Structure formats: C-alpha cells, structure tokens
Amino acid sequence: MVRSAARLFALAALLAAGVTQAAAQEDMRSVMGFGPFFRSGPSASPIPRERVSFMGNYAPGTIVISTSERRLYLVEPGGSALRYGIGVGRDGFRWAGVHRITAKKEWPSWTPPAQMLRRRPDLPRHMAGGEDNPLGARAMYLGSTLYRIHGSNEPETIGQAVSSGCFRMTNEDVVDLYDRVRVGATVIVRN
Predict the structure, then answer these.
(1) Which of helix, strand or coil describes residue 50?
(2) CA–CA distance, 184 with 191 (Å, rounded to integer)
(3) Helical ranges in the chain per DSSP H
(4) Rounded to an integer, what is the distance from CA 151 to the centroid of its chain?
(5) How does DSSP classify residue 14?
(6) How many CA atoms lie within 13 A of 86 on its CB side?
(7) Percentage helix, strand, coil, to 5, in the chain?
(8) What is the residue-averaged pLDDT of the chain?
(9) Which stretches make up the L,D-TPase catalytic domain (predicted)?
(10) Residue among 69, 98, 97, 95 nearest 84 (CA)
(11) How would DSSP label each residue in 128-180?
C-alpha cells in the first residue's frame, strides 16, 4: 500500500514537472516573440511567404499590393520580390492609389473610426495593443488615410476579402515586413 502511494506520488510529481516545464517553455516562446499569436511551423499563413521573380519599374523597398491576387510584394534588387498573402477589403471597401508609410507601430492600439462604429456598434470604442487586438503585432500607416498594413488576430482570414480597406497579414508575416521596410517607403495599391 505504501509502495503504491509512493509510485502515485512520484508519477504526480513527474507530471507536475512536465506541466511546469511546458508552461516555462510557453512563457519563453512569448518573451522571444513566438507566443500564442505565432503558430509553430514554417508559416502560420494559409499563403506562405516566398521569394519570387518580379518585373516592374519599382525601386527596391517599394511595396506593391495586388488586391485581386490578395498578395503584397516587397520589391527587392535584381528583379525579385518577397510575396506575402494578405486579407483585403471586402466588396465596397477596396481602393487603389499610391501612398507612403508615414508611421510604424509595434502592438498598436485600435480605435475604430466613427463610420465603422455606425456599422458595428458592438465594437469596443478603444482597444489596447495585444494579441486579441485586430491590428495584431505590427501596423504600418498609409499616408493620412485610416488604412494600414497590419497583423491580425484572425490568421485564417488571410487570402480573403474581409476588411474595411486595410491589408491584414499574419503576425509572423507582418513582423517580417515591418523589419524590412522604413517610414517613407512607397506603397502602390492596385486592383
């Protein structure tokens, strides 16, 4: 009887140590930038990031967004670009034009504009940055518009027309893009 109790206690201690170790690993993943908002594996995006051949008369560092393809291209030297899957504006919210990145923010807060609140009165009036925030891990602001290239707390929407005009990416991809572009970069949006 004592021996069975000792075995049960030892098993419970091992299980508790395993849970503690797993929790510690998860905490470390969050600290290192790979927390719950970053899925494990090569890419959390349903459309993996890739380097592709890209022809066009664009300077390296230019971002070209093709809403019809639901892709964002970061132009690189030598006729190539990094291609990312994105979510785009739904019907009635798509737009085209040329802007510059005027600001970049990590874990941005979100204040829905008045017209969005009229459509969706259930939305919060303000939301602090964090993993539940719809803007995700990073945001790049486009000119004086309300539009942004930003992360998302809904990575499954990448490749779909679901936004109110912003361009959403997985948090993994938006962090990668954010680290590669500068304030002042040209963004060309075409349908």
Answers:
(1) strand
(2) 22
(3) 2-31, 114-119, 171-180
(4) 2
(5) H
(6) 29
(7) 25, 30, 45
(8) 83
(9) 61-190
(10) 69
(11) -SSTTSTTTTEEEEETTSS-EEE--S-GGGTTSEEESS-EE--HHHHHHHHHH
Per residue in 99-145, pLDDT tens?
999 999 999 999 999 999 999 999 999 999 999 999 999 999 999 99
| Spatial distance between the Cα atoms of 25 and 156, rounded to a whole number of angstroms | 25
1 strand-pairing partners? none
Catalogue the active-site residues: 150, 166
> CA nearest 94: which of 62, 63, 120, 68?
68
* pTM for this prediction: 0.77
- Whether 86 and 65 have beta carbons less than 8 Å apart is answered as yes
- What six digits make up the tokens of 166? 């912003």
- pLDDT over 70, % of the chain: 77
**What CA–CA distance (Å, rounded) separates 56 from 50?**
18
The CA angle 146-148-152, to the nearest 5 degrees, is 125
Round to whole Å and give the CA distance between 38 and 57: 34
The backbone torsions φ and ψ at residue 5, rounded to the nearest 5 degrees and listed phi first, read -65, -40
